[in-house]
Amino acid sequence: MSEQKPVQWASKIGFVMAAAGSAIGLGAIWKFPYVAGTNGGGAFFLIFVLFTILLGYPLLVGEFIFGRRNQTNAIDAYKKEAPRTAWFLTGWVGVAACFLVLSFYSVIGGWILLYIVKTASGSLSGLTQEQYGALFGSVIQNPVQTLAAQLIFMVLTVLVVARGVQKGIERVSAVMMPILFILFVLLVLRSLTLDHAIEGVKFLLVPHFGDLTPESVLFALGQAFFTLTLGVSVMVTYSSYLPKTQNIPRSAASIVVMNIIVTLLAGLAIFPAVFSFGLEPNEGPTLLFTVLPAVFEQLPFGILFFIGFLVAFLFAALTSAFSMVEMIVAIIGKGDETKRKKLSWASGFLIFLVGIPSCLSYGMLSDVRIFDKTFFDVVDFTVSNVLLPLGALLISIFIPLKISKQELWAEMRQGSHPGKAFFYIWFYLLRFVVPLAIIIVFLNLIGIISF
User: Is 26 domain-assigned?
Assistant: First the structure.
């Protein structure tokens, strides 16, 4: 039997678009506005940006180097670098996190699909702010609709992943990401012209550190990793398909910059509208579904704009979902492309089953609480504030521990020409600053230290 040709991205820009699609998902568009709204606004955003640059970027470069160096799935990559050790369990932490992330991610994806249908049918036209909130409540409490929509979202995800890296993920991401960006710019321009919009801008960009709590710092750290899909070895998987000619530091910088810009655009689209309508910025996870319809209602041809935005919103969710299913398929399939379709469908269906309790958290299971949280909130908190930082901690320790400084320097230089100063700054940030920051936040979370 002839050996299979290794999977690779078709182009450098294709990889950047796909990786950016993984990073720029619901974390930036859905989660950031409501997490920032409940955790200090401008102060939270500033700390998030600092964490993204000082911790997220070094770790992203590290995952890219590690993945491209080994050219295999995440678990086998850990085994190659550290044979006969337990380090491969870091890959399984990523698998568990991807399953859990998508289990509630797909719920939100389903909400988006339902809103696309309702907007196209005219159900969202001419409502008051209170009626938008009531409508959303009725949508998410309907078990049949929400479960069906969640299933459809997973089917759309699997259809793309099953087609492969080049023909599926890369090709679709290259179309979805520019559309998302263009529609977001249009939304921001309109949002900034609303009455009292400046109050929302101040809330996002003027830091008030008195509003921060230790938990807010933890959330900012989790948000930085969540929005870059770090700590789950997804970027290890994506970079394993890279040729040695890819400029890793530049590619990672492009993704970080795009992620921060889209996060900023999300804030500028949402918070001016929130303050314009006299709402509180701490509306929670439902913020986008209760505020944005009212914003688009003010626009000429608002329904068409809102449908376009919802489609772009869906694209953001899907491009992130692609990366997580791909990571799972790569690990289970071990590079055997003949198994891709079966494994994609099996993984997607299992993720859907795991997500059912989260889907029903606002309806049939709304009274079921774990530590005073719904299933949806428990899964979100566990992934964002435990599994992602834990995975990031393990990866940040593993790479400089198991790969020599000389080998890392040689791998970084393939496809790029970084200066020695850049390399040493990156190396010491990854080796010392990233793990130390994560450990400090974890110790604060469990009450050993306080700040």
Answer: yes
- List pLDDT tens digits, range 206-255: 988 887 777 778 778 777 877 787 888 888 888 888 888 889 999 999 98
pLDDT at 3: 47
Output 97-101 pairs: Cβ under 8 A, ≥24 positions apart.
97/231, 97/232, 97/383, 97/387, 97/388, 97/391, 98/232, 98/234, 98/324, 98/325, 98/327, 98/328, 99/328, 99/350, 99/351, 99/354, 100/354, 100/379, 100/382, 100/383, 100/387, 101/232, 101/324, 101/383
- Token output for 14: 């294709």
The number of domains in the chain is 1
Residue 15 phi, psi (nearest 5) = -65, -45
Positive or negative, the Cα torsion across 377, 226, 36, 274?
negative
Q: What is the CA radius of gyration of the chain?
A: 21
How far is 32 from 332, CA to CA, in rounded Å?
A: 32
Residues 6+ apart with CB under 8 A from 50: none
* Cβ–Cβ < 8 Å for 220, 44: yes
- Residue 451 maps to a domain: no
Choice between 25 and 234, residue whose per-residue pLDDT is larger: 234
Whether 4 is covered by a domain: the verdict is no
Tokens 């000619």 correspond to 245
Domain that holds residue 32: 12-445
C-alpha triplet 163, 167, 168: angle, nearest 5°: 55
The verdict on residue 155 lying in a domain is: yes
56-75 burial: b if 16+ Cβ within 10 Å, else e: bbbbbbbbbbbbbbbbbbbb
Nearest to 221 by CA among 426, 27, 448: 27
- The pLDDT of residue 357: 93
CATH classification at residue 406: 1.10.4160.10
Q: How far is CA 223 from CA 243, 269, 402, in A?
A: 30, 19, 27
What is the overall mean pLDDT for the chain?
A: 84
Q: How many residues does the chain have?
A: 451
C-alpha to C-alpha distance for 22 and 233, rounded to whole angstroms = 12
CB atoms inside a 10 Å sphere around CB 371: 7
Q: Give the angle 128-131-133 at the CA atoms, nearest 5°.
A: 115
